[in-house]
Amino acid sequence: MNTLAKIKQYLDQNNVLYKVLLHEEVYTAQQLAQALHVPGKELVKVVIIKADESYRMAVLPATRNIDLSSLRSLMSTASLAIATENEIKTLFPESEIGAMPPFGNLAGLETWVDESLKADEYITFNAGTHYEAVRMHYTDFERLTLPHVASFSTRI
């Protein structure tokens, strides 16, 4: 089962309304926002991080940069780094690099969400490829993932 099929099954099982969006193949969050005609602040990017010896997922708007120093303090870890492509491939073998969906809970990863995402009614994210996306209510996303919500980003 591919990533999009897994996401759809998960959302359907949890009675979540969502929309699948097919689009031209793009590789950056800003290109995706343009292709889908959605505000960049509603578009989610996923950053896989290695905190000490465990992997975690950080989810933030495409219009912001991750602040690793703030996140390291919030997580109370000695070291924090962005995971390598090889590490990401191991964690998400069915997803294209840079197109992982923001459901860390489905991958057994603790999930951290930047609090700025709460300001928007909807979020849109890659669904495992660079040509499939999903749009859903942020409140449903938070209800399903039960993330740590904190401020750990800066404006681009």
Put the structure in a nutshell.
With 156 residues, the protein is of the alpha+beta class. Helix content is 27%, strand content 31%. The protein has a single domain, classed as YbaK/aminoacyl-tRNA synthetase-associated domain (YbaK protein, Alpha-Beta Complex).
Describe the SSE topology.
Elements: H1 3-13, E1 18-22, H2 29-36, E2 44-51, E3 54-61, E4 64-66, H3 68-75, E5 80-82, H4 85-91, E6 110-114, E7 122-126, E8 132-137, H5 138-145, E9 148-150, E10 153-155
Parallel strand pairs: 3-6, 6-9
Antiparallel strand pairs: 1-8, 2-3, 2-5, 4-10, 7-8
How many domains, as an integer?
1
The overall pLDDT, averaged over residues, is 95
The CATH homologous superfamily name equals YbaK/aminoacyl-tRNA synthetase-associated domain
The amount of helix comes to 25-40%
Distance between the termini: 36 Å
Poorly predicted ranges (pLDDT <50, ≥5 residues)?
Answer: none
| Number of helices, counting only DSSP H or I runs of 4 residues or more | 5
Which properties best describe this structure?
3-stranded antiparallel beta sheet, alpha+beta, 156 residues, 5 helices, globular, 5-stranded mixed beta sheet, YbaK protein
Folded structure, characterized:
- It is built from 5 helices and 10 strands; from the N terminus they run αβαβββαβαβββαββ.
- The longest helix has 11 residues, at 3-13.
- The strands form 3 sheets. Strands 5-2-3-6-9 form a 5-stranded mixed sheet.
- It is globular.
- The model has no long low-confidence stretch (mean pLDDT 95).
- The chain has one domain (3-155): Alpha-Beta Complex (YbaK protein), CATH 3.90.960.10.
- Helices cover 27% and strands 31% of the residues.
- It starts with a helix and ends with a strand.
- A hairpin with a 2-residue loop joins strand 2 (44-51) and strand 3 (54-61).
- It is α+β, with helices and mostly antiparallel strands and 156 residues long.
